[in-house]
Specification:
Blueprint (H helix, E strand, L loop, with lengths): L6 H10 L16 E4 L14 E4 L1 H7 L7
Antiparallel strand pairs: 1-2
GO molecular function: endonuclease activity; nucleic acid binding; zinc ion binding
Protein name: HNH nuclease domain-containing protein
InterPro entries: HNH (IPR002711), HNH_nuc (IPR003615)
Length: 69
């Protein structure tokens, strides 16, 4: 399975997030990051159920850690 989210998946993740970072609430710009909730490097799939839209700052802080919900 691909590591990168497809353009369609990215559009859907952005729409589901209301165009806001799901961590800090900042308005997403065109360079937002489609992130794996459960890190891909730790076995997380590239699916909408495991995706979230984050601003670059929040995603880079998160790194390869898993988000706990």
């Amino acid at each position: 399975m691909s590591r990168a989210f497809s353009p369609r998946q990215r559009r859907i993740l952005r729409m589901l997030a209301g165009n806001l970072c799901q961590k800090c609430g900042a308005v997403l710009d065109a360079g937002f990051h489609a992130d794996h909730v459960h890190a891909h490097s730790r076995g997380g799939p590239t699916t909408l159920d495991n995706g979230q839209a984050l601003c670059a700052t929040c995603n880079l802080k998160k790194g390869a850690k898993n988000d706990d919900y």
